Automatic annotation (TrEMBL):
<dbReference type="InterPro" id="IPR039420">
    <property type="entry name" value="WalR-like"/>
</dbReference>
<feature type="domain" description="Response regulatory">
    <location>
        <begin position="6"/>
        <end position="122"/>
    </location>
</feature>
<dbReference type="InterPro" id="IPR016032">
    <property type="entry name" value="Sig_transdc_resp-reg_C-effctor"/>
</dbReference>
<dbReference type="InterPro" id="IPR011006">
    <property type="entry name" value="CheY-like_superfamily"/>
</dbReference>
<protein>
    <submittedName>
        <fullName>Two-component system response regulator</fullName>
    </submittedName>
</protein>
<feature type="domain" description="HTH luxR-type">
    <location>
        <begin position="137"/>
        <end position="202"/>
    </location>
</feature>
<dbReference type="Pfam" id="PF00196">
    <property type="entry name" value="GerE"/>
</dbReference>
<dbReference type="GO" id="GO:0000160">
    <property type="term" value="P:phosphorelay signal transduction system"/>
</dbReference>
<dbReference type="GO" id="GO:0003677">
    <property type="term" value="F:DNA binding"/>
</dbReference>
<dbReference type="InterPro" id="IPR001789">
    <property type="entry name" value="Sig_transdc_resp-reg_receiver"/>
</dbReference>
<dbReference type="InterPro" id="IPR000792">
    <property type="entry name" value="Tscrpt_reg_LuxR_C"/>
</dbReference>
<keyword id="KW-0238">DNA-binding</keyword>
<dbReference type="GO" id="GO:0006355">
    <property type="term" value="P:regulation of DNA-templated transcription"/>
</dbReference>
<feature type="modified residue" description="4-aspartylphosphate">
    <location>
        <position position="57"/>
    </location>
</feature>
<dbReference type="Pfam" id="PF00072">
    <property type="entry name" value="Response_reg"/>
</dbReference>
<keyword id="KW-0597">Phosphoprotein</keyword>
Amino acid sequence: MGSMIKVLVAEDMHIVRGALVALLGLEADIEVVAECASGDEILPLAQSARPDIALIDIDLPGKDGLTAAAELHEQLPGVRTLILTSLGSPGTLRRALAAKVNGFLRKDAPADRLANAVRGVAAGRRVVDGDLALAAWDSEECPLTTREIEVLRLASVGSDPTEIAAELFLSAGTVRNYLTTIVSKLSARNRVDAVRIARESGWL
């Protein structure tokens, strides 16, 4: 890697993205080479701009940040990923690590920590917010299977069992069984409560 660290910034809030670009622009060894506002733009932009680091907000329109990070890892493994989030839950960190991200930083971290995180990830280290890492270490594993999470994620946006069944190529009866199991595993009162519990734990 050359002396300049080339960074792509993906953040949908224009003021926040502008602030990130401005902060990184103050660093002599960091150059922002591309910026975008949606997850769908990240891979094409990275293919053309060839950044060293993709700084990605976890909550993006289109593809979410973790999906985009996993896609980058698969198709452009030379681009390292640093996730920014305001959702500092241990479950969210677990999902980020499963997506093979190289760094995970809260948005309320001090400004100097951002530049140091970019440098750390560029140097090949995995950079994770310390307090969050400890919380994730102590936190409960998600009790839901990958399929159950898929079902609950679709239910969380208002899809009914018939629609979920069509989306996942299952029968409506199977989907209802999944939902019953999910509610039971999470000790939830109902489907809405199950969605709340899963979101607060960072599993969705």
